[in-house]
Amino acid sequence: MATIINGKELAQKIRLELKEEVADLKQKGIQPRLAVIMIGNDGASSVYVRNKSKACDEIGIAFEEFLLKEETTEEELLDLIENLNERQDVHGILLQSPIPKHLDIREAFNAISYKKDVDGFHPINVGKLAIGEECFVSCTPSGVMRMLEEYNIETQGKNAVVIGRSNIVGRPLAQLLINSNATVTVCHSKTQNIAEITKKADIVVAALGKPKFVTEDMVKEGAAVIDVGINRNEEGKLVGDVDFENVEKKASYITPVPGGVGPMTIAMLMSNVIRAAKKEN
Fold it and tell me: What is the reported pTM?
């Protein structure tokens, strides 16, 4: 039976450490500040923004929210980003996605100063990650790496399989695993015989957005299984990309959904904001 990786507990531990860091910074006259831009009124986005606001509040990070109308123009959005780039009291800028279809999200992400890009989406940060330089890394992948570290799950020399190649999770996570000396295979919708590949893996990360995609027969005995997926099943219940009940019997470590990777994402975002504040001062 697998050891369950408790993301909620670990995230709470990180938040307490960050709270102390913020208290130290405030004594030096530094107030870390996160600016969040949200366009339109997407329900899920509102929940995410509220959770980020709560976390900032708990840790002592100043939180500033910019709610823009659905019909906001590209020019208005870029002007706001430019303004936040120039503000010395703002350390992190986050554009909540999705954004309305008429706006170019890539251009907006690229407009955020890479020094304030606490989401790790700017091409400069992505490039620095690829060559192993210090940079801001996308929050979910860095949360996964922190979990592996905390539970002493060795990556060096191990076979790791990442299922999913999104710019937010799959690609940066594959890069982080390579940087930690794992041998990495990335599987995606065009990969043939995925089960044959995952069966050989010491670490399997599922980040593809398909409920219970990873089944018991796809995992080798004793593998560590990290489930990044968040899906709703027919009953409206949250489930991951892994068939937890059955895979748990075979794995050595496994993350639950909810309570696994999710809480780590916000903890790592908070960590990035504090790092940005330290760099600027």
Answer: 0.96
